[in-house]
Write a structure and sequence with these properties.
The chain has helices at about 40-50, 65-75, 90-100, 115-120, 125-135, 150-155, 180-190, 215-225, 245-255, 260-275, and strands at about 5-10, 50-55, 80-85, 105-110, 140-145, 165, 195-200, 230-235. The longest helix is centred in the C-terminal third of the chain and has 16 residues, at about 260-275. It starts with 6 loop residues before the first strand and ends in a 10-residue tail after the last helix. The chain has a single domain (about 5-275), classed as TIM Barrel (Alpha-Beta Barrel). The chain contains 10 helices and 8 strands. The protein is of the alpha/beta class. It is globular, with a radius of gyration of 18 Å. Helix 1 runs parallel beside helix 9 and helix 3 runs parallel beside helix 5 (about 125-135).
Length: about 280
Amino acid sequence: MGVQVITDGQVHLWQEPTTERPWPPGRSTPHRPGGFSVEQLLIEMDAAGVDRAVIVPPSWIGEDNSDGLRAAAAHPTRFAVMGRLDPSNPAVGQVMRDWLNTPGMLGVRLTFNTPQFVAWLDDGSLEEFWTQAEFLGMPVMMAAPRLAAKLAPVAERHPGVPLIMDHLALPRVVAAPLTRADFDDLLALARFPNVHAKASCMPAYSVQRYPHRDLHGHLQRVFDAFGPQRVFWGSDLTRLPGSYRQCVTLFTEALRFLTVEDREWVMGRALSEVLHWPDPLPLPA
């Protein structure tokens, strides 16, 4: 089942660390050795039939958005960026306001994958960040594994912030088949209209071969709770255990409960609207 425009909600670009561009200590490890360039990404996208992608700078390189912004400047119809920043910075509001005038920058991506970062969800350190994001209407993507319940107070206090839960708030690695309980905290957030679910890198959460039938029932629960207008597809390409094309067709062909219109929404239309990144081609009304 074809989709007019396919927008990948999450890809990473990075270079190996150098003396001039060291990586900060204590972060997560890269998905693969050797880095991943925009040239490699374009080859993969063209082969998989993906039209454009949101570049999410990976956490291991620190708050450095330069690779993504260069890619967006060179290929403005194919790439845009959700930038990384330090949300505890007292000047975070000015940083975000500057981003409004930065070509290719669509919003913020936060990663809660260290004890310090997780503590920020409890101690009030990010209240200024959330207030500024709401004032600016800036979308925020979050890698918050098993932390969905901690985002409920944020969603309630700041209804003007589009909150996007990456990887359906699942952990980076799973050792056993997912259960219904793994999704309960995420589904509880569906009551907040400003919360969105990003179904990214789903093959990594399956213990079965393509078409990953062990995921279908869980994904149907997510779509039933949020609706197709609030669920976004993404690959997290460099972490995929299988092919990029199969990550696409899992949603465009294998999930039989999705209608033609549902597929248009999840494969890019919904994300384009939330991020204010218009599709390069007209979509059905």
